[in-house]
Amino acid sequence: MSAPAAPLSALYPVLSQLPAAARERLQARARRVQVPAGTSVFDERQACQGFPFVLAGSIRVVKSAPNGRELPLYRVTPGETCIISSACLLGHTPYNARGVTETDTTLLLVPNADFQALLGEAAFRDFIFQLFSERIADLMQLIEEVAFRKLDQRLAALLLGKGRSVHTTHQQLADELGSVREIVSRLLKGFAEQGLVALAREQVDIVDPAGLRRIAGG
Fold first, then answer.
1. What is the pLDDT of residues 51-64, one digit of tens each?
2. Nearest-angstrom CA–CA distance, 113 and 99
3. Distance between CA 198 and CA 206 in Å, rounded?
């Protein structure tokens, strides 16, 4: 279960900078939506139905390949926005990725016309473009990871970022890396044989973090 939804203005302070008329229009026309965990909130080639503010929960945005593999792009949590939704609305184009709720999620969905009207407010426009800048930087880092780092390096770095005892499945690790379970399982078995980790059902215990750091650093 996700945490209770916080007030909109607390999560998105930029909205407090809008004129009173714009805030009233947003309150009157935006629609609150409860979405269960594991639900697809948008998919590739689907028309954008509105601009979402995330009040509680999280959305995992992924790019899918024809063979079923997925590359995680980013997560959208309370206080953040989805740049793919923004891009679709700005360019009047369909989605080019998929968004799935990771937990029970509460959204405030702003109709397309009202999003366009909000862009006429300098504070909101700056907010959107700032988030574009931040997300693009994150995506550039992701491209660098995928293109220039080997999978064993990325897996070691991923494990190190999750604490000494990682409660997860091999499939979930593969999903986070944009790989397949069989390859991740083989790498984990190799790490275990080197004494770097200990494997149990849905759990990976870090035995030699210094050794994993050496692998992660290449």
1. 999 999 999 999 88
2. 22
3. 7
Structure tokens given for 167: 């409660």
Instruction: Report which DSSP code applies to 71.
Output: E
Q: In what order do the strands lie in the sheet with 51-56?
A: 31-35, 105-110, 51-56
> 216 with 207: CB under 8 angstroms?
no
Predicted confidence at residue 138, as pLDDT, reads 86
* Burial group, residue 145, by CB count within 10 angstroms (0-12, 13-18, 19+): middle
What pTM did the predictor assign?
0.71
Q: Burial-class residue 147 by CB neighbours within 10 Å (0-12, 13-18, 19+).
A: exposed
Q: Do the Cβ atoms of 55 and 107 come closer than 8 Å?
A: yes
Mean pLDDT for the chain?
90
Whether the pLDDT of residue 145 is over 80: the answer is: no
